[in-house]
Amino acid sequence: MSHPSQPAPASQPDPAEVSRRTLLRAGAGLALGAGVLGTTAGSASAATAASAATAATGSARANAAPRAQTAAALCDTPGDSASAQGLGSGDLGIPYFRAHDNSWGYVFGDSWRGAAQSGDYLGSPVMLAQAGFDSSGGSPIGFSWAMPTGGQAAQLFDYQHRVDNGHGFEVSRIPNDCIEFGGRTYLQYTSVAVWGPPAGYDGSLMSGVAYSDDYGVTWTDYDYHWPGDTQGTNQSPYGMWSFAGIDPDGWLYIFSKRWNGSHTNTADGGAIQLFRIRPDDFRAGNFGAQQNWAYLGGSWQWTTAAPPSFILTGNNIGEFSVKRIGSTYCMSYFDVTDYSICTRTAPRPDAPWTAPKPQIVGNAAWPPNHWGRPQLPTLYGGYIHPGSASATSLTLIASQWNGQQGQSPYRVLQYDGINP
Questions:
Q1: Could you read off the pLDDT of 90-145 as tens digits, one per residue?
Q2: What are the angstrom distances between the C-alpha of 240 and each of 78, 174, 364?
Q3: Is the residue at 376 inside a domain?
Q4: Which regions in the chain score pLDDT beneath 50?
Q5: Which of 86, 181, 345, 355 would you label with 42, given CA atoms 20 to 30 Å apart?
Q6: Is residue 122 part of a domain?
Q7: Which domain holds residue 371?
């Protein structure tokens, strides 16, 4: 159900092991019928205008041809451009704009050299890059080179899997979003301690932000990390981030939520919060300078006197993405309960959001609002491409895994022409 527009706030991988994707539920057997996410509260008066990434692709959007890509597989397919860069199979494929040279980066999670999770395990995160993105949908995404060195794909971060790297035992570091501004690239990630933790626990070790001053070749962790479940802070709302971008008002807007990469965190509740920070403070690692969007004293306001309030609650959700496309803020997320990738929009990050709309579904036969939607069994992810043609014609990057180690598919797919 939908909540009023101004509610009070709601109070690894070892290749031989089962990973988070084994826990995806498929087909009509998925439990359906829980309420959809609610809407957010409040508004802001700052003017909106095209962001740098929007301007870089504005002419392509204005003259966009009919969308052509529906479920175009970008890896785990014989002869694809990912395999030419040394990545056979991987998930997530989080897109971001590489402002320094007008190219595009795509950040993958757990990745393998061969198809269907075969060959060498590359690690996580892994990045491929593209020289030019066709926002018209006339041609699918094709990868031009791999990071971190421009040779064959390799893990970006210098850490070991299934050991204590100085913070506690961690299985893998899973990327949640990436952004570049001011000559520096930032990648937010979650360190996973347990895939598929017991009910009520999120299974994370910590969350962090790494940065690169050479556009993805070398990476440095900020000293501060947001503690997770096994560091004593279960259900931290700073587990997963999405960089909505730098608004014309000068603030960097960031949405975050509890870690639910296993899609089994029953305490997730679809709770999302919003905060903002000046880009210079973010660059300096002065994270305490953030302002929080909070319900305080009977009204919504930006404040440093209280933590952020939850602006959306409802179904459990996994991966999510928020991007400013033109003058509209667009959100997508994997609704675990509804078994679909949904979208919403808002004129401002702190304004009310539209009701969720299923766009890509695991089961198109049921419920009725899934009828006619593209079907992708065992789907998850759903990241908005910041170079999308327009706020009414998004490109989404979805993930698919069939639940069986060593079998296809384990890949990301491109969908164009999504009207949120």
A1: 999 999 999 999 999 999 999 999 999 999 999 999 999 999 999 999 999 999 99
A2: 32, 10, 28
A3: yes
A4: 1-66
A5: 181
A6: yes
A7: 20-418
Confidence (pTM): 0.87
Phi (first) and psi of residue 145, to 5 degrees: -160, 170
Q: How far apart are CA 379 and CA 185, in angstroms?
A: 28
- Beta strands across the sheet bearing 126-130: 94-98, 103-108, 126-130, 145-146
Beta-bridge partners for 328: 325
CATH number of the CATH domain containing 73: 2.115.10.20
Residue located via tokens 């301690």: 193
What pLDDT does residue 48 have?
Answer: 31
Per-residue buried b or exposed e for 13-27, using 16+ beta carbons within 10 Å of the residue's own CB: beeeeebbbeebbee
- DSSP annotation of 339 reads T
User: For residue 9, is it within any domain?
Assistant: no
Residues 6+ away with beta carbon under 8 Å from 33 = 367
Which of 105, 261, 272, 258 lies closest to 172 in space, CA to CA?
261
If we measure between CA atoms, which residue out of 60, 73, 155 comes closest to residue 109?
Answer: 155
Domain count, the chain: 1
